[in-house]
């Protein structure tokens, strides 16, 4: 298969899907002033090439679970196999290889009443060290700007779905069947979802609308930043003075290079992912933006070598 490249229309289609990942292609086409088939063909090409896919997840708030940020120091020759094994686990939500293959980072979900299941990882002969810290809170309420800068303000207004009401709902048996299917393909058609979960299309349509309206279900479009022209990604672990934690997190979340910010337990109380054009841009980000944050006591960086899993079935 030929290498995938993105043109201006591809970027607009992806931006539209970031606004509403289940928007009908006809609605996207109208906003972009192109044919329906053109939009469907563009996304179909990217999905078939593995360059983009829509996934879904549910926050740990709604599953009654907690999230653990797990750091594994591993033998470099074992990192790819170990990462793939972690990605297959239903309790992992994010798996990435770091520091040239000497580390693996993952988010692992566990019951609030029990510790994370780390014993089997600690016994693995290719894992040299295991560290786990609670991910206390996600602190970024916007998407990374590198994925969402292709549309005009009018196009964004035409495509943005109505705001949810935030009403809490209780997950049920249908959700436990539906959510793993949506995690695999967040744009799966209603007939396909009905076939996979064994419920009627009308019931699935109503439930999906409820999940989205309540902000229980979160849809996302996975795109490799390298395709967007960003070749340097880095995991940042920051130790911030407690009195400056909230202000530092807000400033960090506002940086255009920032793709994620979270508060954690442990000696580093903030974690972030920075995505930059190249190594020179990453250096400038670390020295200028991060260096100017008030309250930073210590910074540890780990280049992201590859992503093995970004989202996972939640139940």
UniProtKB/TrEMBL annotation:
Signal peptide: none
A Pfam match: AsnC_trans_reg
InterPro entries associated with the record: AsnC-type_HTH_dom, Dimeric_a/b-barrel, Tscrpt_reg_AsnC-like, Tscrpt_reg_AsnC/Lrp_C, WH-like_DNA-bd_sf, WH_DNA-bd_sf
Keywords attached to this entry: DNA-binding, Transcription, Transcription regulation
Domain HTH asnC-type positions: 171-231
Domain of life: Bacteria
PANTHER family: LEUCINE-RESPONSIVE REGULATORY PROTEIN, TRANSCRIPTIONAL REGULATOR AZLB
Protein's name according to its UniProt entry: Lrp/AsnC family transcriptional regulator
Protein's organism: Actinomadura yumaensis
């Amino acid at each position: 298969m030929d290498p995938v490249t993105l043109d201006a229309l591809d970027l607009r289609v992806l931006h539209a899907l970031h606004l509403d990942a289940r928007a009908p292609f006809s609605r996207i086409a109208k906003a972009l002033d192109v044919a329906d088939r053109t939009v469907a063909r563009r996304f179909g090409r990217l999905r078939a090439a593995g360059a983009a896919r829509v996934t879904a997840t549910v926050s740990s708030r709604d599953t009654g679970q907690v999230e653990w940020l797990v750091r594994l120091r591993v033998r470099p020759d074992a990192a790819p196999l170990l990462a793939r094994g972690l990605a297959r686990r239903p309790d992992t939500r994010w798996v990435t290889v770091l520091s040239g293959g000497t580390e693996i980072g993952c988010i692992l979900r566990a019951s609030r009443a029990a510790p994370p299941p780390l014993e089997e990882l600690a016994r693995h002969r290719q894992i040299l060290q295991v560290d786990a810290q609670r991910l206390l809170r996600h602190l970024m309420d916007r998407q990374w700007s590198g994925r969402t800068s292709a549309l005009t303000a009018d196009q964004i207004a035409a495509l943005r779905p109505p705001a949810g009401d935030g009403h809490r709902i209780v997950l049920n048996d249908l959700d436990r069947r539906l959510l793993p299917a949506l995690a695999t393909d967040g744009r799966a058609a209603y007939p396909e979802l009905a076939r996979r979960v064994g419920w009627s299309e009308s019931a699935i349509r109503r439930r999906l609308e409820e999940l989205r309206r309540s902000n229980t279900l979160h849809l996302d479009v996975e795109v490799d930043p390298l395709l967007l022209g960003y070749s340097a990604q880095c995991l940042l672990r920051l130790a911030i003075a407690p009195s400056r934690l909230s202000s530092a997190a807000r400033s960090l979340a506002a940086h255009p290079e920032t793709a994620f910010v979270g508060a954690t337990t442990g000696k580093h109380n903030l974690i972030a992912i920075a995505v930059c054009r190249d190594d020179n841009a990453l250096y400038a980000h670390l020295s200028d933006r991060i260096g100017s944050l008030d309250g930073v006591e210590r910074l540890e960086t780990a280049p992201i070598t590859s992503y093995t899993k970004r989202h996972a079935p939640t139940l």
